[in-house]
Amino acid sequence: MVTSEQVARRAGVSQATVSRVINGSKYISAEMRERVLAAINNFGHTSKYFYLDVLKYIEEEAVSSGYDLLMPFRPRDKSPEGYVRSLQTRSVAGSIMLVPSPQDPRIQALLRAELPSVFIGSMIQGRAATYVKSDYIDGARQITEHLLALGHKRIAFLAGSEASLSSMERLLGCHQALEQAGIALDAHLLRHSGWDMEDAYKAASQLLDERHDFTAIIAASDVMAIGVLRALNEHGLHVPDDISLASFDGIDFGEYTIPPLTTMWQDREAIGRGAVQLLIAMIEGTGQVPPPPLIVPTRLVVRKSTKFAPSE
């Protein structure tokens, strides 16, 4: 996974500086803050953080199974069909795509060609295709039930993009847990934003400008939670004494925020290795083709950003 050391190297600063920026220290210059946040966001946009770790396990599993891993390349013919032909020309036996957009035209080209394919993070299936993803619905249900058990009844939810399947599944899990507890989802406490810190910071700031009648926030990712922490700090609110904060992914930074983030951890190793195993099963014709999707369980990691709701 991406670490504070990697961000420090990319930004050209010390790890201590990265830590101060993450925790909103006022002793950091605006220029230094922007440099560190740009480095963090760069990692986030290109890898969604934990997918770097997923890629590591994909490579390890492929090599240990006797297969070579080819990284993406740009064929001369940039059409979807040209992309598939370029794979076939290189005698590629199968394809793994990480969090592809459902609108990516290469997906349909792969499905039409029936090249064995596994899609990570997107629910795409075909005659020679299946997918792997975390159980976002159950994860969101767990994290919401955790807050409910602490006495929180007014919970704000900061979701990612409305077009994102994982964002919608997180929201569904949250809604199911609230419904089970007999609590209606307050639409005004639901906010959509992008997945990076800046978008989450703006969305949380707007929410806090409008109302303060909630005692907990669920952010759809740990990266977003860092933006929420800044917004809460600027509004004079402390985590978890005033507002409890929980999020998703279980990335390295969540352990170093103040306070450390309660998070829903995703099993990167199971995702990466599982994707390779499904692909090899299709390539070698063992078992059911295509194999059923792999839904990987998540695990709640409770840290110091959540506590019992303040008394009325």
Question: How would you explain this protein's 3D organization?
Answer:
46% of the residues lie in helices and 14% in strands. It is of the alpha/beta class and 312 residues long. The strands form two sheets. Strands 5-4-6-7-8-10 form a six-stranded mixed β-sheet, sandwiched between helices. Strand 6 (216-219), helix 10 (222-234) and strand 7 form a beta-alpha-beta unit. Helix 7 (136-149) packs parallel to helix 8 (165-180). It is globular and about 65 Å long. The two termini are 40 Å apart.
How do the helices and strands line up, and which of them pair or pack?
Elements (H helix, E strand, L loop, with lengths): L3 H8 L3 H8 L7 H18 L2 H15 L15 H10 L5 E4 L6 H9 L3 E4 L8 E6 L1 H14 L5 E5 L5 H16 L9 E3 L4 H14 L5 E4 L2 H13 L9 E6 L12 E5 L1 H17 L9 E3 L1 E4 L11
Parallel strand pairs: 1-2, 2-3, 3-9, 4-5, 4-6, 6-7, 7-8
Antiparallel strand pairs: 8-10
Provide a concise account of the structure shown:
The chain is an alpha/beta fold.
List keywords for this structure.
312 residues; alpha/beta; four-stranded parallel β-sheet; 10 strands; six-stranded mixed β-sheet
Helix and strand succession? HHHHHEHEEHEHEHEHEEHEE
Measured between the Cα atoms of the first and last residue, the distance is 40 Å
Q: What Rg do the Cα atoms give?
A: 21 Å
Spans of at least 5 consecutive residues with low confidence:
none
Report strand %. Answer: 5-15%
For the biggest β-sheet, the strand order reads: 5-4-6-7-8-10
The main sheet comes to:
6 strands, mixed
What is the percent of helical residues?
40-55%
Principal-axis shape equals globular
Beta strand count: 10
Could you say which structural class the secondary elements and strand pairing correspond to? alpha/beta
